[in-house]
Protein: Endonuclease containing a URI domain protein
Amino acid sequence: MYYVYVLRNCKDGRFYTGYTADLKRRVAEHKSGILKSTSFRLPVELVYYESSLNIKDAMRREKYLKATWGKRYIRNRIKEYLRDIKNIT
Structure:
C-alpha cells in the first residue's frame, strides 16, 4: 500500500505533497529535518493523507494534488474538517 500525504508548514501555512510506502517513517523524516525538501520549512504537521493500492495510482494522485485543482481540493477538505470540529465543540 502507498500513501499520498500533505504536510503544512506551521509558520506560513504552505503545503508540501508527497507519496511513500511508509507514512509514519516518512513524516518522521520530514519532521526531523533530514530531508532537503522540507528542512527549511520546519516545523511541519501532517494535515491529510490517503491510501493507494499501487505506486502508479499514488504518483498520479500526488501530481493531481500538486496542481491547482488539487490544492483547492485540499484546502476545502481542511476547511470542512475544521468547520465540523467547531460544530462539535
